[in-house]
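Justification of resources, computational component.

The compute hours requested in this renewal are based largely on the per-chain cost of generating structure records like the one below. Each record pairs the submitted sequence with a full structure-token output. That output is archived, and it is also reused by downstream analysis tasks.
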Amino acid sequence: MEELSQGKDTAVPVALSSASVYPLSVHDAFAAAQEVGYDGVEVMVTNNATSQNAHALLELSHRYRKPIVSIHAPTLLLTQQVWGTAWNKIEMSCRMAREVGCGTVVVHPPFRWQGNYAGKFVAGIRELAEMYQVRIAVENMFPWRVRGREAVGYAPHWDPRDQDYDDVTWDFSHASTAGSNSLDAIKGLGPRLRHVHLSDGLGSRRDGHLVPGTGNQPCAEALQYLAATGFDGVVVAEISTRRVRTAGERQQRLEQTLRFARQHLGLPLVGASDKDS
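The structure output for this chain reads:
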């Protein structure tokens, strides 16, 4: 990735998730990544046709000179109609990752009612990862709460730490909702940590995806730990801007997130004159 030359070979890339500009399109995500100075883009596959088209994504990548660092499979409740069955969603995501030239696919754990899929999930994703030669990184989620009581929403569990996954994505906002400490989790995951979704949260039931440093997660300490221990994955900004009132407010949040990440990863802060120079 020629975009990532930050003065040292071990620099941790800081990419932008297309979810960070929702409800805007994946095209807008590439444009924002270029404008703000992110190192690449994570594409979340949604109902948006471009997000499902490898050729269109490569055109955007080349146009904006931003590599695609990961594909987020359409495993959300809102994307149940995308790419058919659960296994087809994962396999299509792996295939797309190969076609666009990235090595990581992010997936959520199965919902508990997806019985056969859930029962074979651990072995199945390992088989697909080997078949397509990609890393399938299972993301931490959080317990559901109904009328003040915890409900089982995911199988085998919402927390990947005690599961037999080869690769894990750690999401700071989900950790906040679950009441987990991201620094402790990252230390415990060790080399299984493949991918990071950087955001923050306030510990409420609402999955806030706040700008890092504005919630209760030890975001700064976790990034510093990753930099000090030679993390060889990608940090992806996945914040929420869906309620912003202006494009300027969205850009401000994206810039604040990138500055925070670069500062605590020990990377140079990119100014407007340095972007894509």
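Strands lie at 14-17, 41-44, 68-72, 104-107, 135-139, 144-146, 149-151, 167-171, 193-198, 234-237. Residues 247-265 form the longest helix (19 residues).
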